[in-house]
Amino acid sequence: MKYALVTGGSRGLGRAVCLKLSQMGIPVIINYQSNKEAAEQVRDIILANGGDAVLMQFNVADQSQVNAALQAWEGEHPDDYIAYLVNNAGIRKDNVMFMMPDSDWHSVMDVTVNGFFYVTKYLLPKMMMRKHGGRIVNMTSLSGLKGMPGQTNYSAAKAALIGATKALAQEAAARNVTVNAVAPGFIETDMTKDLPQDELKKLVPMKRFGKPEEVADLVGFLCSDQASYITGEVISINGGLY
Ligand code: NAP
After folding, report:
1. Cβ 183 vs Cβ 234: under 8 Å
2. pLDDT tens across 100-132, in order?
3. Per the confidence metrics, is the pTM higher than 0.85?
4. In the structure, which protein residues have their CB atom closer than 6 angstroms to any atom of ligand 1?
5. Domain residues of the chain, as ranges?
6. Structure confidence by residue, pLDDT tens digits, 48-73
7. Domain 2-237, what fold?
């Protein structure tokens, strides 16, 4: 069986991605950090719809937790492998740089960049060894493409993820592993609920925030057979806001 692992699958974009991949017939591993109840809700929806889902708690920024959780899963699933990895877990700690606490710089880099590295490093060799390869989708952001004031930590982390996507795509291509990034603009989730939506909507040519399901459809496409020759791409999904 080929499983999908979605980091930060308990809420927001990750939740929508878990539901989408399950609709595509893929068994899903729902990673979360602390919100077990939300993760259980995602699992229960998938199970109620006849899909297959399990929870996996770990902090992506803690390599020993990542390795221990994935090793335990492999021990229980000797005939299965994780063929789809969506590196979605992320946090925002916005501030202008001259006032930014060091810890807010490090935590955003840790979750986004080191989290990507720890989870992907563990799973990549196993994907590359398999005949059917694998799919890696990294959740970056418009902020990583254009840079956003008040987000030097977040923009730097998301830009790093774009560089890593392009480099890793070339390393893994010959082994049939595609590596792409998705760059959303403003999407309606917990992460954006404290933002002044009415003001920000005016900046978006489509005059609205995106929905998690719209991003999940794009991730689903990148994980599908139809996207087998797409790799190293960064695909924006932002209602025309560049
Ligand atoms: P969200 O609603 O705040 O959800 C964040 C998810 O990440 C939760 O499932 C959370 O788990 C998980 N998470 C956070 N830190 C983690 C860690 N250290 N280890 C494991 N899981 C962790 O955020 P979202 O809006 O869905 O964002 C998802 C991704 O899209 C992020 O990478 C974000 O940067 C990116 N993005 C979002 C937008 C947007 O407008 N929303 C735009 C561009 C990019 P718990 O439930 O356990 O806390």
Report:
1. yes
2. 999 999 999 999 999 999 999 999 999 999 988
3. yes
4. 7-8, 10-14, 31-35, 38, 59-61, 88-91, 111, 139, 141, 184, 186-187, 189-192
5. 2-237
6. 999 999 999 999 999 999 999 999 99
7. Rossmann fold (3.40.50)
